[in-house]
Amino acid sequence: MNKAIIIGCGCVGAFTALEMSKSNLSTMLIEAAPEPAFGTTNANSGIVHSSHNTQPNTLKFTLVDSGNREIKRLSTILNYGYKQCGEIVVIQCQEQMPKLEEMIDLAKAQNLNIELLNKEKLQALEPNVVGFAGLLVKDAGVVNPYEMTQAVWNTAAANGVVGKFNEKVTSIEKIGELWQVKTNKGCYESEFVVNCAGLFAEEISKMALKDANRVKIMPRKGEEYLLDKDCKDLVHSIIFPLPSGNSKGTLVIPTVDGTIMVGPTAQQTEDKSDRSTTAEGREKVFAEARKLVPSLNEATAIAYFTGIRASDESGDFIVEKINNFINLAGIQSPGLTASPILGKMGADFITKNRTREIAYVPLHTKFINGDKEALIREDGNHSKIVCGCEMVSLADVHNAITDGARTLDGIKTRSRAGMGRCQGGFCTETVAAILAARLGAPKSAICKNVHGSNLISSEVDGIPCVQELEDALPYHAVQLADLKVLVKSKSRDAVIAQIEANHCFDVVVLGAGPAGLAAASSAAALGKSVLVLEKGARAGGILVQCIHGGFGLRKYKQELTGPEYAELLESDCLQSNASILMHSFVFQCAETGGGYTISTVTRGLGVRHFSAKALISCMGCRERSRAGVRIPGTRPAGVYSAGLAQQMINMDGQLPGKNVVILGSGDIGLIMARRCTLEGARVLGVYELLPRCSGLQRNVEQCLTDFGIPLHLSTTVVNIIGEPRITAVDLAPVDPVTLQPDLTKTTRLECDCLLLSVGLIPQAKVAVTLGGKVNPKTRLIEVDSFKRVSGRFFTAGNCLQVHDLADDAAEEGHDAGRAAALLLETSVAPGTLVVQTDENVLFSVPQSLSKSSIHSQQASVSIRFLGDAKLWRDADNKLWGRLRLLTPFQRRWFTFVQKKVDSNVSIAIEKLEEVEVDKSQRQITCIVCPNGCNMLVKLGNANDIEEITGNQCKSGISYARQEIVEPFRTFSTSIAIENGETTRLPVKLSKPIPRNKLIEAAKKIRQCVVKAPIMMGDVVLKGIFGSKVVACCSVLEK
Hints:
Elements: E1 2-7, H1 11-21, E2 27-31, E3 47-48, H2 59-78, E4 82-83, E5 87-91, H3 97-109, E6 114-117, H4 119-125, E7 133-137, E8 141-143, H5 145-158, E9 162-165, E10 169-175, E11 178-183, E12 187-195, H6 201-209, E13 217-227, E14 238-241, E15 251-254, E16 260-263, E17 267-268, H7 279-292, E18 301-312, E19 318-322, E20 325-329, H8 335-348, H9 372-378, E21 385-387, E22 392-393, H10 394-402, H11 408-415, H12 428-439, E23 487-488, H13 492-500, E24 504-510, H14 514-525, E25 530-533, H15 562-575, E26 579-581, E27 584-592, E28 595-602, E29 606-617, E30 621-623, H16 626-629, E31 639-641, H17 642-651, E32 659-663, H18 667-678, E33 682-687, H19 697-704, E34 711-712, E35 715-721, E36 728-733, E37 747-750, E38 753-756, E39 760-762, H20 765-769, E40 788-790, E41 793-795, H21 806-823, E42 833-837, E43 841-845, E44 848-849, E45 857-863, E46 867-873, E47 878-885, E48 891-896, E49 905-911, E50 922-925, E51 934-939, E52 945-949, H22 954-965, E53 968-969, E54 972-978, E55 984-989, E56 993-994, H23 998-1006, E57 1009-1011, ...
Parallel strand pairs: 1-2, 1-12, 2-9, 5-14, 12-20, 24-25, 24-29, 25-26, 29-41, 31-38, 32-33, 32-38, 33-34, 42-49, 54-57
Antiparallel strand pairs: 3-8, 4-8, 5-7, 6-7, 10-11, 11-12, 13-16, 13-17, 13-18, 15-16, 19-20, 21-22, 23-26, 27-28, 28-29, 30-39, 35-36, 36-37, 40-41, 42-44, 43-45, 45-48, 46-47, 46-49, 50-51, 51-52, 53-56, 54-55, 55-59, 58-59
């Protein structure tokens, strides 16, 4: 029997448990969620308030300052995130000064450390804030609410408090002298019950006291928006408007983790589970916040959420004991700040004899915050970075699991894995695999947060619930020396010796994608010592998961899958005597002494600082997240970027959903429509905001038309519905001119998965850090014709401009590598000749040309419209050639003979009149190559082919003839591989098969399991409608 049962493990429940652990009384805590801080505490602003901003003569006012001091004191003991940044209440005019003076008098009476700021002092302290005056309260600060609650609970649990998570209280009855608490899993007895149930404190109180009016929770929603870390210097103190009514207003908050939080709104709601965001809420938050910080940019938001405050109708905390039932309810702001004192008050009702010495359990220090070299000495797994956006190490993830994380959100809140600008697009699958291994569960069992929020669709049979697997396997730190350093080189030992000796390389390339490998190859071919730093375990970058075809047609004159193309590029790179260092994460670059210092964390080596005479950044791009396209609604499982879904299917064999909606018609969205279909899902449609398709027409043909998947133009998703997993989306038509959705004409479409293919963003941070200029129109880094940003720093590939074709990225990398090598031998002034474009050109790269004869220079232009066009160059209107533009924003490359370029270059595009198509002819889009020629086939009376036009090569004629007789297709997929370095092997058909056999062929291939080792080109299966199945990459044994 327990002395006390605490219901709820938010901040108040955790602090109550901590206080009870100081007694010798048996205590149990029951929490409906799988982990602490998954309720109101989870969606908290994290402000540690002072009493100046609290209503006098209330319990809130009485407790807030002592709670402030206790949170600060415990932060050093328990190692949770806290900083005393101060708070400024800003007024906008003289008329508001009397209310501010009332606040000053209140602060003085409480002996708070304050300062009145006039306009000049306010501007000096916070240059981005506008206001007439402000009150600086230096005692205020910010805390990480999840870390604080988790640390407090861990300490309580370590000192004897028993936790029962994933248990929902169903009834509370007084049986004699004891309380009987029933849950969905058991029945428990205790002398005391402490109600810390937050939003659901009213229901718990009713169960026990049978009094419907004792606690009356009036839920209030508040939307919050998180900005990118690039905005971290926007404000340094918490910025408040002068409060009015029940709300403290819209705030601008510098969090302990380096982001800026904006919000909240304050809206009464009847639904305690409604955590959806709204378009109106977002508009209001940013409109109000810009009154304080006008430079605040809504486009920098990377995430958003809604918290619900458990406000009691009394407007104050409820702290009471009735018949040994204790209410700690109505815990609205400043409830987080007051929670340590509320916990003491709750425990005081039970016993004041709490003198037992307890052992505090501090949180593990996160790699990004600590002494990196010291942490790596303690655990070598800190040398492997899992989440690049937040620099989360493998050891950080393991420590989060050791500390109690059993869900992806649990790991996220403890380690920040997935909280960065890509929102888990790169790291989710890796983190899920680590968690699954520690729990001894299949990856399909891993949940986002609560039961039912599995990463894959709930319609897939046989998914165990990971929350029932509470005990994680033990984790043991490893020694750095025990981790293998993964170097690919013709002379591995010599390269490692150079690294150990801090050798200065001629050229260092960041990233081993197509651009990086090509850059390294061309620089090394000119005799330079070249080292490629790659954060992953395999060379190729995104190519590794792009198992579809269409690669290498220009460079290798054959159609390859992504893994095949990557393996050939890697081979070329190594044959040129360049070396590749894997698992090497770059966290800092600096120009030093005419060269560059590149600081990395490398598995098996730890923190290393590399020197280079020239530096080339080929770090690729990231996908635009949900926040980037501003889709409101709930935050359920089942909403993924198309790239993450590609990882799930191609690399792990996990189907993200059964009924899939795809937003965005870029190539990756089209390709994933086909992949989902081949793997057994039903793709309900591809929806595109624009009035035209964004991807290549050949992909529309082979990914959508072939499978009967509809493409809906001028339509977008305006709301996401469902918890804990997505159940539907709201769609709305979009005005083709203003690109604004018509919210009066929405339709609801049921689904269990939404894939976002809404654009790619170049990873240009290194270029910006090294002084690169961002073009205000295109947001691209400006370069000259050598792909040079400045000095001997170059950039190429998708981190310079997003390419439709990997061949284009590789060619750009090749040019950058060659230029880097040549410019080590000679000095060429930065480009001064401007590339000028007309209104039909979206942008050009480069933006300037150099007067140099080192090599020919190229420019690429992105053109705004579809159809036939003429390209004009120079002031004399010289015709450069005709173009056939098959996709909007299509890019075209033009070569300038270097020695002939001696003046500014003008590029103009003239759209030709469209020729009316004979509707009696059959239109066919060729899929043989990325050109995707639109051909017209004239058929005779007997359906014999009389004429084929529109093709640019003979292959088009052959394709059209076969398409008329019987369409044939080939495709790629992945199969399970045992005992290999990876768990999936990408494979492809050796030759095309009838199009109507694709689904059946995919089913047969899915049954196949092979064993490592496998070499690229090996036949793994025969007899698939006359075709063989061959391996697309080499996989060695473990």
